Q: What sequence folds into this?
């Protein structure tokens, strides 16, 4: 069994998963820094080394940007994995456009969400809708047919 991850390690791992699935190749160290609001590339290198030691990824020292994600299907809260109430951790939502402007989220914003299957009215939640993850303000009435993946805990924006 794989060791558990710290919140920051989980964020790096989830970003690797989502970008690798979206683009077909992993992000660069600088892209990880930018997306997660980290200032030092050394911090990302340390997180990647820890992910490798804990058995989440396999790095190839002779090739840049090449990671093999190990047992990705079993990791909590990625777009392609189970989102049962027993999962724990954090995942990152990248706002693809400004459709969520009414919620204060703009194109390019990064929203960190804590995995949990329930929410209080008014909280910003991540849900599956039309085969994609989206964010909405939670109301009991609106969510009868939608599964809650998590609750927004942090918003990051570049100025």
A:
């Amino acid at each position: 069994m794989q060791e558990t991850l710290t919140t920051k390690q989980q964020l790096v791992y989830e970003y690797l998963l989502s970008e690798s699935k979206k683009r077909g190749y992993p992000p660069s160290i600088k892209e990880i820094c930018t997306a997660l609001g980290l200032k030092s590339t050394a911090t990302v290198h340390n997180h990647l080394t820890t992910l490798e030691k804990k058995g989440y990824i396999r790095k190839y020292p002779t090739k840049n940007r090449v990671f093999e994600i190990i047992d990705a299907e079993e990791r909590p809260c990625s777009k392609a994995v189970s989102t049962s109430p027993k999962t724990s951790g954090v995942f990152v939502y990248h706002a693809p456009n400004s459709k969520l402007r009414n919620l204060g989220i703009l194109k390019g914003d990064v929203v960190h969400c804590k995995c949990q299957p329930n929410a209080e009215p008014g909280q910003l939640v991540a849900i599956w809708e039309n085969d994609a993850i989206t964010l909405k303000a939670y109301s009991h009435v609106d969510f009868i047919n939608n599964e809650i993946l998590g609750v927004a805990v942090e918003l990051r924006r570049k100025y």
